[in-house]
């Protein structure tokens, strides 16, 4: 039975997390088990990618119940690509954690936290049931609460209270939105909801619910005007945790918007998708303002998350094949590059002993490899042609022109300049100029240990950009499936 | 009946919003408690309040008399989740009180290291 295999990327981290709980003080054991589990899960996700590509969406309904009555897990092209990306970048972040997070945290359930967060995220990418999506959201949020506060420094306590309260409110809103949706359509399976919404022709109440879902997922994904919590909360997290959050957590919200707005709420696009477009453009603009306003390495990269969320959602809001393909390309690219940038930024901060750009300088002489890697990552983020950010943004801009929104596309092009400026500023301040007296908190061995996974992750993004041709059929398949919800519905409900 | 419940839930949301906008951390946590009560009651109401028999198979009860079992299962799930999260934030608030020595969220900002 191929189908049960799609559960492996969820079950393996879950099982590993439980195994890890037994010997928290044995750090070697923790590291080895985590790495083995991640490798196994990545291999299984690769295998599923092949199957989904060859045979179309795969589904499992728990307990042999017929489709709308049980909980269905669906692995279509978009889900499996995101699951695979998640696992690959977590592999590098965990490797990076070995030399950054510190033994004290490793002894207090750091790795089980990461494994549970993976369970939640992979589950959220794979589930086909709206309430089950809520449960998986809570699984990864609960683990993220642990990871953000682990260590208990003052700044972590401040940031995590903020983060918790925001997420409790958005979770309550999620429950409310599900309650309203259930009272209108009377079902919870996403495929079945899509069928019922199509039968009802999306009356006004469903448009209201669509906007409510946009608010809920927008709070997770940090779109305008709901991104206010993100910089403060993320700034308080330690570097590898920040890399994990920055690469994954907001992207689950983006995925949820992508899924609901391509599968369920597609019958009143002149309102819902127009709203999404306006919000995504405002998200880009406010993200750009934030990225230029600060002289803090971490904050600059954090505001770049906000910009990228806006760009992806603009691609989604155009509702054409080009836009969705671009959104998929850019989503995967952005997850990889944000993880890499936070890792590199963390090394820069560790070397100079401060996150303030004005107090850094002249790192190029002593750390040339770090400098050039950061420059490549920065170019890739901005979308310079051979690198990975290019093709996604090209398709998204093209979709804007195709859908007759040329000015919006031009704003996206201009935002690329701002992105480039903001990260090149880090490069110029940190690597050029006079060498300054620094309170280095890092030895040359740990420097090498931290730089290796970061460089390898940058190599992955380069391969993703240069090998866009090889990835293209998968992305095309993903956007095809998103444009035709019928494929998804048929896979779940079986030709009804 | 649904109308009455809608008003009650509305008042719960109002009180929750008011409490969460205050400065004291404990009042915020009480607000989140009220918010989840409101959300849970909303699921129950939105599932429909018809049906006089509990959803347990028993002799002499027609299928049409059962209450909708699905919202009850959803609420049970949501209750334990919000219970877990509430326990976590209560302990976090206690810890924050110990090391930051304040219950006032306005005093917690401490943005001295902002560049």
From TrEMBL, chain A:
Organism domain of life: Bacteria
Chain segments annotated as transmembrane: 6-23, 35-54, 74-96, 108-125, 131-150, 162-185, 205-230, 242-264, 276-294, 301-319, 339-357, 369-387, 407-432, 453-476
Main location: membrane
Pfam families: Proton_antipo_M
Mode of membrane association: Multi-pass membrane protein
Subcellular location: Cell membrane; Membrane
GO molecular function, one term: NADH dehydrogenase (ubiquinone) activity
Protein name: Na+/H+ antiporter subunit D
Span of domain NADH:quinone oxidoreductase/Mrp antiporter transmembrane: 129-416
InterPro entries assigned: CPA3_Na-H_Antiporter_D, NADH_UbQ_OxRdtase, ND/Mrp_TM
Cellular component annotations (GO), alphabetically ordered: plasma membrane
Automatic annotation (TrEMBL), chain B:
Topology term for the membrane: Multi-pass membrane protein
Record carries keyword Kinase: no
Gene3D superfamilies (UniProt xref): 1.10.287.3510
InterPro entries: CPA3_antiporter_subunitC (IPR050601), NUOK/Mnh_C1-like (IPR039428)
UniProt entry keywords in alphabetical sequence: Cell membrane, Membrane, Transmembrane, Transmembrane helix
One cellular component term from this protein's GO annotations in UniProt: plasma membrane
Bilayer-spanning residue ranges: 6-21, 28-50, 70-94
Family: Belongs to the CPA3 antiporters (TC 2.A.63) subunit C family.
This protein's name: Na(+)/H(+) antiporter subunit C
Organism taxonomic ancestry: Bacteria, Bacillati, Bacillota, Bacilli, Bacillales
């Amino acid at each position: 039975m191929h189908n049960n295999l799609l559960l492996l990327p969820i079950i393996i981290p879950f099982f590993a997390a439980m195994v890890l709980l037994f010997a928290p003080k044995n750090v070697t054991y923790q590291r080895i088990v985590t790495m083995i589990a991640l490798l196994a899960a990545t291999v299984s996700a690769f295998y599923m990618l092949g199957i989904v590509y060859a045979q179309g969406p795969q589904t499992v309904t728990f307990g042999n119940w017929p489709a709308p009555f049980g909980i269905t897990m669906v692995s279509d092209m978009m889900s499996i690509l995101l699951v695979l990306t998640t696992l690959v970048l977590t592999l590098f972040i965990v490797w990076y954690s070995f030399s950054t997070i510190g033994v004290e945290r490793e002894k207090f359930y750091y790795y089980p936290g990461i494994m549970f967060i993976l369970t939640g995220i992979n589950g959220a990418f794979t589930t086909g049931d709206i309430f089950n999506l809520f449960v998986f959201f809570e699984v990864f949020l609960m683990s993220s609460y642990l990871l953000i506060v682990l260590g208990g420094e003052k700044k972590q306590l401040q940031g995590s209270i903020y983060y918790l309260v925001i997420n409790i409110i958005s979770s309550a809103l999620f429950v409310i939105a599900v309650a309203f949706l259930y009272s209108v359509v009377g079902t919870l399976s996403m495929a079945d909801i899509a069928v019922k919404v199509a039968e009802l022709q999306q009356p006004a109440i469903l448009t209201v619910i669509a906007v409510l879902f946009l608010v809920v997922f927008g709070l997770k994904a940090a779109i305008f005007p709901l991104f206010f919590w993100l910089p403060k909360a993320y700034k308080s997290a330690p570097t590898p945790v920040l890399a994990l959050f920055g690469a994954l957590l907001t992207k689950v919200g983006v995925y949820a918007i992508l899924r609901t707005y391509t599968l369920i709420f597609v019958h009143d696009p002149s309102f819902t998708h127009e709203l999404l477009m306006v919000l995504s453009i405002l998200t880009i603009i406010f993200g750009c303002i934030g990225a230029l306003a600060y002289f803090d390495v971490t904050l600059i990269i954090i505001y770049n998350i906000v910009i990228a969320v806006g760009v992806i959602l603009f691609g989604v809001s155009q509702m054409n094949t080009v836009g969705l393909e671009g959104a998929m390309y850019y989503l995967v690219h952005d997850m990889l590059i944000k993880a890499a940038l936070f890792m590199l930024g963390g090394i820069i901060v560790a070397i100079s002993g401060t996150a303030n750009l004005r107090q850094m300088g002249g790192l190029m002489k002593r750390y040339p490899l770090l400098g050039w890697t950061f420059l490549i990552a920065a170019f890739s983020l901005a979308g310079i042609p051979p690198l990975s950010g290019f093709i996604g943004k090209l398709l998204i801009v093209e979709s804007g022109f195709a859908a007759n929104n040329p000015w919006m596309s031009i704003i996206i092009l201009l935002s690329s300049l701002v992105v480039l400026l903001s990260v090149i500023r880090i490069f110029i301040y940190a690597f050029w100029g006079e060498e300054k007296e620094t309170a280095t908190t890092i030895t040359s061995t740990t420097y090498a240990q931290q730089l290796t996974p970061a460089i390898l992750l940058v190599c992955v993004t380069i391969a993703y950009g240069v090998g866009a041709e090889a990835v293209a059929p998968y992305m095309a398949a993903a956007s095809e499936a998103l444009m035709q919800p019928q494929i998804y519905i048929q896979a779940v409900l079986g030709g009804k | 009946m649904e109308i009455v419940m809608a008003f009650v839930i509305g008042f719960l949301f109002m009180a929750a919003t008011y409490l969460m906008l205050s400065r004291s951390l404990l009042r915020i946590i009480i607000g989140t408690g009220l918010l989840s009560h409101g959300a849970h009651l909303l699921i129950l109401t939105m599932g429909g309040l018809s049906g006089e028999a509990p959803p347990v198979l028993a002799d002499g009860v027609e299928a049409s008399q059962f209450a909708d079992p699905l919202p009850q299962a959803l609420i049970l799930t949501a209750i334990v989740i919000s219970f877990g999260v509430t326990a976590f934030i209560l302990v976090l608030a206690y810890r924050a009180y110990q090391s930051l020595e304040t219950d006032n969220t306005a005093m917690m900002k401490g943005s001295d290291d902002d560049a």
